[in-house]
Amino acid sequence: MIRLTRRYHFVASHRLHSPQLSEAENDTTYGKCNNPFGHGHNYTLEVTVANPVHSETGQAVPVPALDALIQEQVLSRYDHRNLNEELDEYKFGLVPTTENVLACIEEKLREIWPPRLGSLVRLRLHETANNTFESTLS
Amino acid sequence: MIRLTRRYHFVASHRLHSPQLSEAENDTTYGKCNNPFGHGHNYTLEVTVANPVHSETGQAVPVPALDALIQEQVLSRYDHRNLNEELDEYKFGLVPTTENVLACIEEKLREIWPPRLGSLVRLRLHETANNTFESTLS
Amino acid sequence: MIRLTRRYHFVASHRLHSPQLSEAENDTTYGKCNNPFGHGHNYTLEVTVANPVHSETGQAVPVPALDALIQEQVLSRYDHRNLNEELDEYKFGLVPTTENVLACIEEKLREIWPPRLGSLVRLRLHETANNTFESTLS
Amino acid sequence: MIRLTRRYHFVASHRLHSPQLSEAENDTTYGKCNNPFGHGHNYTLEVTVANPVHSETGQAVPVPALDALIQEQVLSRYDHRNLNEELDEYKFGLVPTTENVLACIEEKLREIWPPRLGSLVRLRLHETANNTFESTLS
Amino acid sequence: MIRLTRRYHFVASHRLHSPQLSEAENDTTYGKCNNPFGHGHNYTLEVTVANPVHSETGQAVPVPALDALIQEQVLSRYDHRNLNEELDEYKFGLVPTTENVLACIEEKLREIWPPRLGSLVRLRLHETANNTFESTLS
Amino acid sequence: MIRLTRRYHFVASHRLHSPQLSEAENDTTYGKCNNPFGHGHNYTLEVTVANPVHSETGQAVPVPALDALIQEQVLSRYDHRNLNEELDEYKFGLVPTTENVLACIEEKLREIWPPRLGSLVRLRLHETANNTFESTLS
Q: Fewer Cβ close by (within 10 Å): the C or N end of chain F?
């Protein structure tokens, strides 16, 4: 059983503001991230998959298929986007915190995950060099 | 004569769109960066200063004064901002490409640069891990 | 359940020398790190916290509160310090190896950890680029 | 119980080609990595060991002994080598994918692992900045 | 006048052996890099171009055109290759040291460099994290 | 003409305190770095050498000879040391700021630099990830 981790990169903007909170609470909760005009990040997504090594190929996972899936399900939707304005997930009140972004990516990947890519066991999303979010799926 | 380089970090969003170009030209020139809703980056600014080493202190530049200047002139204005919407430099048609952001930062720093901080000899602005812009000032 | 990892940085000096060992044993055990005058490092501390995502804020942990806690309990005590000479933990014979530094930080954080910051599940301390120590707390 | 992770570096070349697959299957499976003349990488191996901290030394593992073991068992065999042509593991049909390299290193280390170095709990092998393989041993 | 630096990545294998040197001299000169079976690296190429910023686009260089040129002239030829066996430059006795690789890339780029991409002012080739070669062209 | 940059690593402790300044001036000038017990860093030294490429070997500089020189002149003296207490350069009032450390290393290297290693054209000393000092020698 081997775990493969692939790293993918996208750039996006977001604004942290919750319609369920007052202006004062939004300010206290999000600070500079509550700026009405938004800001942005270079995000790195780490996808970790576990699978036995195939005896003929010596590979755990067909990497081109994994890359294509992440391109289609994540990068094509998140890269060079304003998360609040352009993604259905965050248009109706769900705040695009990195926690929620990670949870939405996880939910989408779980729905369509093909067994031939092994088990999706961990997602990590780096927002800055000092800030990482992780979801342990198994 | 020693050169000191300090690295500063800010996060911001921008949209690349020139009012002097047609829609088709904007699309050809900027591609995904022309997305009307914008996107964002973790920027790193490198400030390089040259100065002789002071014989009593053994230092080339008073670093706290340099940090305070960059905080006031750059970080307080650029960090957690939407460059197109919030900075006067880019509100009236100047496109916030990283080239222009670097030139605007340079112009502002040159105007108020205090001689006691030495000579400002180079600015570098990293937009992503694979993309860096540099202005050699001397 | 999301895990947030924050990275904090401090610089410090230490000397590895155990009063329970002979001079020859100290030399064999610690090598150059036994140098009587000490040496130092740029340390990076990774703090990992697990918590459910709050439905209103979309956040797992109030980051400013976490930062304030680490500043007070760790950085204010360890940054720009000589660990052997200045911290009570290591004044009376406990050797400030990175293992012991990690254990002391863990003990201190566990004593005062406020439940509203979630569960402290992992601490990592990087001593150099090639040397990392980890304590799995849960 | 502390986990120590040490990082070791080696450079090597390999070619991915399975004698159990047809030419067309090799091409589909390995793409550019199937190039008959091979290519190469700067590999980083992370070795993670778990052990209680020794009360007299304050150390979990004698690092010089760990380094000597990895030098003898891994680096002296893999560094500056063509994996397909020079290592017995891959001369007879086992494809030197990073998965198989990791498995072979694990098998070799497990055979001769001395208890005084603690428990070998995880191996990670980085092939590029975006591609990491991991074996959880415990 | 702005300098743009773009970083490109390729993986390749090589062997350092000069037909103009004796076996003993080859061994002394290249050490482990003289291994007859070769080894490999993850290379990073930095291309630095100087150009005035275009007043309408705010850009110094059309990046897609630069990327296409480097893809065609460098990456398509060097990525996933054995430099000694597959590139005409090194088949007839020129040793594929990183110095020579850099010089060959420079010569090729200079021959076909289109003025609309600005002035090619510096090439850097990183062989490992601790080893960089640079050619200052202007 | 090629420039080779090699990176070397050492760890050391220092205290910034000038006997030519009052206590108050020392505090204002050096802040936390004036702590009487000192602190430390992981330093990285970059040595850049310019030389034509040798036609027979394809190399600009004999790297083993360069490594041996830096080991003897710099690393053996600075690694795992307390700069204030153990190095003659800083025992008699010269403050071991990174500026002065860089100047002392430069002076020592210039005295004994052998022409066969090419021209020493630049030294850089990284104190932290955000703080670099550079001396341009040519």
A: C
